[in-house]
Amino acid sequence: MRRLAALAASAALSLGLAACAPRADGPIVLTYATSYSPTHPFSRADTDWIRYVETASHGRLKIKPYWSGSLLSADQSMLEIRHGVADIGLITPIYVLGGAHLTSAQTAFYAGARSIDDQVAVYKCLAQAFPPLQRELDGLRVLMVQGGNLPGVITRDRPVRSPADIRGLRLRVPEENVGLVRALGGDPVSMPMSEVYPAMAKGVIDGVLVAPDALGALHLAEVAHYYSDLHTPRGAYPARAMSEARFRSLPPDLQKVLLDSEAVWEGSLSKNLGAAAKKGLAYGKGHGMTMIAVSPEAQQAFDAAYIDVTRRDASRLDRYGASGAAMLAYAQTLIANTPAGQPVACPKEQP
Fold first, then answer.
1. Which residue in 110, 83, 80, 84 sits closest to 92, CA to CA?
2. What is the domain partition of the chain in residue ranges?
3. Distance, CA of 62 to CA of 278 (rounded, Å)
4. What CATH number labels 152-234+285-336?
5. For the whole prediction, is pTM greater than 0.85?
6. What are the TM regions of this chain, as residue ranges (predicted)?
């Protein structure tokens, strides 16, 4: 009897220990890191993606997010993900100092692409047609390609209705648009976006090339009177990636969940960015700004000037393993051959 009691006690203890121990078939936890806060439009898309992955994997994958730059740095995230600092994270190859020259430069090849979905599709066709683009991301598995809202022209006192109206304006512009504004007779200025509001308020600059969501997000509608939809072309680039080694360590069915999640992530980001642009425009109208819709002819002239500058820059890319001129021509042909309202489709024959 005592032996039976001892066996029962031993069994109970074993069961108790088993209940406390982690399950061998428990969820795989993947870390996700971004430099943005949880409320940013990018992060809202990230949250949708997390929800999809955990649901589609039936709980076998769990994503642990690290927001606001708490795990990855803004300028070294590609290297950090390769080395396992985070399993998955936001990457910005267009801003790294070296190693992604083609990826950065190709974002200037998208004149005529008018939607975020078109931008993403053009990038994927370029990456398929020009393998050196993908080689710049060796060691990473891309999980999302990011486009963006087209920048317009926000000005303090002078409306912009055509490229000619840029002459004489002192505008804050991204580094990649310095040559364009200079070619149009403007005075391009580089400064952090956080300094644009006080600079416009004091008249230090006349305006800024930026997407319309900045009217509300940065309160620029309080110091500007005009918003022009003379759109500066912009492209897409890989923006969320996972360590290739970590990806390959997962079971094939969970790899498929992550690959399938790409469309979910991209769709949610496009939706959130579109909502942010509408909110910014509404904020501007609410503050009495004049909204200027430029003519198709004005936009075409602006795009032509943009392409002239881009063509000169593209000729310098050959040293990085791909013809910049060929990449530019490919992207422009792809955009020109896509009927309005139809999705961009990669041609069957590659260059």
1. 80
2. 28-100+120-148+237-244+256-278, 152-234+285-336
3. 33
4. 3.40.190.170
5. yes
6. none
